[in-house]
Write a structure and sequence with these properties.
The chain is of the alpha/beta class. The chain has helices at 18-26, 47-50, 67-71, 90-94, 113-123, 135-141, 152-160, 199-209, 217-220, 226-235, 249-259, and strands spanning 14-15, 34-39, 57-61, 78-82, 101-107, 128-134, 161-169, 174-175, 182-189. Bound molecules: S-adenosylmethionine (SAM).
Length: 260
């Protein structure tokens, strides 16, 4: 990669730490009928290891200057696509492949971390995601109630996935060295999801509850039937003076299901 002019605007920080690459790849639970999606393969640091699983690997890279590096990876199970991942019709793309399990394994471009996750969740039934993200963002994904990082995104993601840390990654593991530290986080789709009567309403309620983080539920939920919510909260030993960060995923499900 000598003389490569890294673009900050594309989140180009390439992983140079073999130990971290190994940890990412080894934490994946790939099976015969798996398919791997990689977003932002860069110069192929992870891609070259992912193809060794011998399952289809589709890598989406926006920067055509990386064509030579990526197209030189000699693997018949690899398809490299040069495009903006956010513009891809993933369902259409995947329709030509045979697979049962989908894995997103990637050192993500940080400026679009959440849009990428949202897209993959919306357009596929992704089973596992092993992704490198900015440390603070990863802390929010896996945050538990009563911690400062717990927010509506934590509840949303934890509804679908068990989320755990694979490893912390120092900024020295990249070229060029970024201004932030990173974390590799693993998401595994839950086999059984909690029974939510109306998902749209559930996620809206969670979002509204966290609208102003410092405010309590009474303030954030003014547009709802507060009397009813108060009764439901009291049933679980809480009340409207609590803040959203004090409610568990199960608490939210209980309240919303009984508000209907
Ligand atoms: N996977 C490589 C590694 O670990 O060294 C590179 C990771 S780098 C953090 C992020 C990569 O995402 C860059 O190669 C960048 O060009 C690419 N990228 C940025 N925006 C993208 C987008 N919208 N669609 C696809 N790739 C994108």
């Amino acid at each position: 990669m000598k003389d490569f002019n890294f673009k900050k605007s594309l989140g180009q920080n390439f992983l140079i730490d073999d130990n971290i690459k190994k940890k990412i790849v080894e934490s994946a639970n790939i099976e015969e009928d798996s398919l791997i999606i990689e977003v932002g393969p860069g110069n192929g640091a992870l891609t070259k290891m992912l193809v060794n699983f011998n399952v289809p690997v589709i890598a989406f890279e926006i920067d055509e200057r990386l064509k030579e590096e990526l197209l030189n990876i000699n693997a018949s199970n690899l398809e490299v696509v040069f495009c903006n991942f956010l513009d891809v019709d993933l369902r259409m793309f995947l329709s030509k492949y045979k697979y049962k399990k989908i894995h997103l394994i990637a050192n993500l471009p940080y400026y679009i971390t959440t849009p990428i996750i949202n897209k993959v969740m919306k357009e596929t039934e992704v089973n596992e995601m092993i992704i490198m993200v900015q440390k603070e963002v990863g802390d929010r994904f896996k945050a538990l109630p009563n911690s400062k990082d717990y927010n509506s995104l934590s509840v949303f993601l934890q509804y679908y996935f068990d989320i755990s840390k694979v490893t912390l990654v120092s900024r020295n593991s990249f070229v060029p060295k970024p201004n932030v530290d990173s974390i590799v986080v693993k998401f595994v789709r839950k086999e059984e999801l909690l029974d939510v009567k109306n998902l749209d309403m559930f996620f809206k309620f969670v979002k509204d509850s966290f609208k102003q983080k410092r405010k309590n539920l009474r303030n954030n939920l003014r547009n709802y039937d507060l009397d009813k919510i108060d009764v439901l909260l009291k049933n679980i030993g809480k009340d409207l003076t609590y803040r959203a960060e004090q409610l568990t995923l199960e608490d939210f499900v209980y309240i919303v299901n009984n508000l209907l």
